[in-house]
Amino acid sequence: MGRFHFLKEKKFYLNILIILVLCVVMLWLTFKLLDGYTRHDKVYTMPDFTGQNFNQVKHDHSREFNFILIDSVYPKGLEPGSIYQQDPLPGSKIKKGRNVYTIVVAVTPEKTTMPDLVGIGLRESIGRLESAGLEVDHLEYVTYYPYTNNIAAQYYKGEPIKTGTELDKGSKIVLHVGLGKDKSNVKVPNLIGKHADEVKRLLNQLGLNLGKVVYEDNDSIQYQCLKKMSPGPSSGAVKPGTYVDVWYHSNRTMNFDKEMKELLHEDSVANKPKPVVIDTVIEKEPIETTDYEEQEEFEDEF
Domain containing 88: what range? Predict the structure, then answer.
């Protein structure tokens, strides 16, 4: 018998077939067990929980995700107990039962103390308030105060507030600002294209107040930029403390560079001096004619 005589036997091929079938079955079982262990067939699109109450979200979605609170922060203007940040981010693909790490807005606000602003310039006072975690509510200009744009008094909830008073971070302070003897007006700045989170501070630094606020679309606040303001830059100078109404639009759906160029063009046309037209009368010298020429003109007319 030859060395490869087994190739002619049916049992050899039968054994090969059995081995192949067993390998396929084992691979199928392995992948099936892995799917069950890793929940491969349960993939979710991560919802956006930011701004929602943490306890309520945890109660409503406890079957899908395991929520873990890792920190708390004190941002201004947000609801205490709401979710400030989440990981994985909204829109991510996540499997059922995975951990969702969250940072929430603290229920108990962080405390700070009121700085002494009386006699200090407006810009520096705004900076000190921000450093203390406080905000400007609005500016009120006071007549007959000897220094222009210096703080005459500081108020909280309608009452004078003393230096060192404990306040919640994010509290809003009314500043009484000295008008000065000259009572000079304030030039309206061009803030077109500025982000919504910096417009109020820039207006306050120049001695103006933020008036009506309009959001023209529903995009996130991080994309909102100033589209229009009234009074606008072409209005020139206005009284200190004037309220400026603003309109915001998403920078993802509007070309603010183009908007700025058009505004600058309109301002330049509006402020361009008109040419002075001088009416001049040119007197013509009389033309002397002979009696013969006058007679011919008389005959031509008739």
Answer: 43-105
Indicate the residue type of 158.
G
Q: Which of 9-13, 66-70, 104-108, 119-123 shows the lowest mean pLDDT across its residues?
A: 9-13
Last residue of one domain, picked from the residues 63, 79, 105: 105
Question: How confident is the model over 104-157, as pLDDT tens digits?
Answer: 998 887 899 999 999 999 999 999 999 999 999 999 999 866 778 899 999 999
Q: What is the pTM of this model?
A: 0.58
Cα atoms found within 13 Å of the Cα of residue 275, Cβ hemisphere only: 3
Which residues are bridge partners to 100 per DSSP? 67
Is residue 268 located within the same domain as residue 189? yes
Q: Kindly report the number of other CB atoms within 10 A of residue 212's CB atom.
A: 10
